[in-house]
Write a structure and sequence with these properties.
single chain; about 25 residues
Length: about 25
């Protein structure tokens, strides 16, 4: 099961932009 950026953002209480930035900085 693959989590989308929106799913991660919702579960962590973050904005999608924040999650996207974190993932791209890896």
């Amino acid at each position: 099961m693959k989590a989308t950026v929106a799913d991660i953002a919702r579960s962590c209480g973050l904005s999608t932009a924040t999650v996207d930035r974190v993932l791209n900085n890896r």
